[in-house]
Specification:
mainly alpha, 4 helices, 62% helix, rod-shaped
Length: 104
């Protein structure tokens, strides 16, 4: 194993680096898996702003490899789609009221 601070080769069981003397913190395997499986903010943002792309990500991201990211893609895509439908309906109503106001 290498020291994360100075890069020196140290024993896997060492608590301190023999070169720089700094403490070596062991990261548990489960913590690494949690960090790896944590969905990224960028993935959420892209899936929300561009729902078809989010659905595409949902289809190509393997469920076994990263189930949290797959779930994030589909949820953000659904919310993004609903947001755009509501926004479109409000825009249509706005235009309708503007046109009614012009012709009356």
């Amino acid at each position: 194993m290498n020291c994360p601070h100075c890069g020196a080769i140290i024993d896997d069981r060492a608590r301190n680096c023999i070169e720089c003397g700094r403490r070596i913190e062991k990261i548990k395997f489960k913590e690494i898996e949690n960090i790896r499986n944590k969905p990224h903010l960028l993935l959420k943002l892209i899936s929300f702003l561009l729902p078809p792309l989010g659905f595409f990500f949902f289809l190509i991201i393997g469920g076994k490899r990263n189930p949290a990211a797959k779930k994030t893609c589909i949820k953000a895509s659904i919310f993004g789609t609903l947001f755009y439908i509501i926004l479109g309906a409000l825009y249509f109503l706005f235009l309708l009221f503007v046109l009614i106001g012009i012709f009356t």
